[in-house]
Amino acid sequence: MSLKTWDACFPTVVGVCERKDLLTDVQDVFNKKIDEKYFEYQTQDTFNVLTPNLKNKFENEVSYFLSEVLKIECNIQLTTSWFTHRSSGSHSHTNSWWSACYYLVNDAQIQISKKAPSICVLPSEWNLNASLDVEYKLNSGDMLIFPSTTTHKALDYIGEGKRYSLAMNFMPKGSVGFYDSSFTYESN
Questions:
Q1: 33-69 burial code (b ≥16 CB/10 A, e <16)
Q2: Are 149 and 73 contacting, i.e. CB atoms less than 8 angstroms apart?
Q3: Is the dihedral of CA 145, 154, 165, 95 positive or negative?
């Protein structure tokens, strides 16, 4: 055989963080903001639920991930945040750069998916490189960070109560890009 090497080119990078230190503060915001009407009648206010202090802490966590893992050094801003309690089917987040989901319950499952190839030949072994879907099982205080274009869905929750989580979207802040592809994102 002549295989010299192989590369996993352009993978989707997903970060898993543990921030149990934020759980009490996020739970306090959740308890003050949430009632059943919240999930039925969402308004603009329901997409900006975090306090400035929590917003800053989540921005710092995502910024650290981008810097350490992807070597991206830029200021970012959390643009939207909202609580959710059910699966919304497979989706991605538009008008956003990176997204994150912070979990308030144990044993919450989320599936990250990639588009199936135009011609699908099944592998003899399913592994991270051959898979179309990857499932994560997360606990309260865990946060998943992923590109906003990544297709994902919450899987059915079999724990007690409802599967509550905090979803967030992030954008760069300030000037990014180069030459004719430069743009300046203003702070919100």
A1: eeeeebeeeeeeebeebbeeebbebbbebbbebbeee
A2: no
A3: positive
Residues lower than pLDDT 50 in the chain: none
**Domains annotated on the chain, with CATH:** 15-117+126-174 (2.60.120.620)
Number of Cβ within 10 Å of residue 3's Cβ equals 5
Residue 6: the pLDDT is: 82
Measured between alpha carbons, how far is 38 from 157 in angstroms, rounded to an integer?
Answer: 20
CB 178 within 8 A of CB 59: no
- Structure confidence at residue 45 (pLDDT): 64
Distance (Å, whole) CA 62 – CA 133? 23
Spell out the residues 6+ positions from residue 89 whose beta carbon is closer than 8 angstroms to its own. 153
Give 76's strand partners: 172
